[in-house]
């Protein structure tokens, strides 16, 4: 076979290949060895799936985004802008061929699944539905999950799927990238029966993905005041600044604090206002602050940081604003997935500390109110949540396993919280 990413070369017998793949899959799941005719890309994916402890006997994908979470997340996802194009290029093909058009994000979560109604109902029995996670780590080898894992177009046929209940299907998917930065955005997929095993199916989704990237380039709004910046400040003592050109700048702690505050005040801040927001020590002079701002201007460039008042002249998006925006819209799962830890945890700047505590408190309250055991566990087992008594209590309510109850009792004793509440007392 000339192209290792194609599942079935032209002229091959699908039935014979499917039987051979089934035997190879059974051998791998029993003994861990790979036999012909398994392609290298599939063999590598099987090994990753097994390493992630995916069971070939699983029956359905976990649903991670539902209702308001899904709607809010889809609305702000970059691929939402090219969904009309996907429907125009693939919608009729999917409906007429009894196939499905699917689009996933970089985590393999399905954002849209459209196509023939009967095929959608059949796929729904294995949770091939919007909001479900089809990453390799959740559902083993499959075209959308594998395409985002290896960042390559790939076709998966029959028993090449790692999970047995998915093996009646064939799919082809291609990754879609941000045309400016090259960042992976997700993948577009066509899923159906054996008819999709033809090499043309993979070429088709590749062409659709390229068309989507071209459309995204055309839809990109013109830059007015210079390149947009992306700021990462959650779970980091020092911010990481990504420029539109793809350059990464690691900022010092004071510069990190300044950028956080300036992004939250697009109208600008005076020197006196910045002094109050940044320094606990009232003896710090304006000269010290001006020196810091001068150094920051040299880092960012003279056209980015302006004065009188101090303000940013270009749009800056941050992971902090992403979490806040998702929380405000009720997208709790999406907010939790974007939260990488406390805001600049080593910062003692008064304003930064207030933002840090407020964000953590609001997200914690939303998680406790939601009561989802997986979301609560993600927080409880993270470094910032290991001593969070409120979350551990909520987790014990939602998932009263022995390790959770034991950790909660230990926290009660360590923090002097007194007797454990009845719901988790044993």
TrEMBL record:
InterPro entries linked to this entry: GAF, GAF-like_dom_sf, OmpR/PhoB-type_DNA-bd
Alphabetical keyword list: DNA-binding
Sequence ranges assigned to domain OmpR/PhoB-type in this UniProt record: 246-312
Lipid biosynthesis found in the keyword field: no
UniProt-recorded name of the protein: GAF domain-containing protein
